[in-house]
Prior knowledge:
Strand content: 15-25%
Shape: globular
Structural class: alpha/beta
Amino acid sequence: MSTGGFTFSVFTKPWKTKPLPELGAFVRKLGFDAVEFPVREGYQVEPKDVTTGLPKAVKTLEHEGIQIASIAGPTDERTIAACAEAGVPIIRICPGMGDEAGYMAAEARLQREFDKIVPVLARYGVAIGVQNHCGRSVTSAMGIRHLIERYDPKQICAVLDAGHTALEGEEPELAIDIVWSHLGMVNLKNAFRRARNGPEAEWVQWDVYWTTGRHGFAPWHRYAAELKRRNWSGVVCLTAEYADEQAVDRLIAVDIEYAKSLFA
């Protein structure tokens, strides 16, 4: 762990075409200790190849001094077993809540799915990490809490995303407190809203602009201060999500430097 018990990870979604040895060297040079690795179609490891591909990816990245702290991928037993074999502790998901029957019906459906998969997770020693997202998703810390509080955090934990809590208007200290009992990982990204149309429009429409850690609604310094105050240690994942996708390499380098200064 690089800084005071915190492991700094980066979501490698922007670099899907980099060969794994090159990817490991790249993120290590940036200053990361670990990655969140997408197990998705078109990436270095696809779901159909997870049984052999994920352990191989772990070994390749370890050779470059990088661990896989989490994956973003499916939650079927094959993937869970591959994570257990490879030593990957968390599968991160952003569950959709767009059921026609409504949000609460979607939550009940997800809990039925969790009820079935929890014994599998317990058997393999792997957790599902539920992240708050935007739109027709679980958007807030309170939404995560209401969805997962009945479960053991060893099987179903919270991945608290600072960017999305900020867009929802949740205060950092309160968001952390809400999911504290189940907090498995923290995501750092940042954004602000800006008007898509002008003042002459009948009603305003807003876009979300993904920016660097210093320049959005989410006060990263308050997240860092509260986590340190509570003596939390664990994975802090920078999601490398920027509206200017062409500048991702430059912006993530700026953001990891900033994040490390906050958690020092």
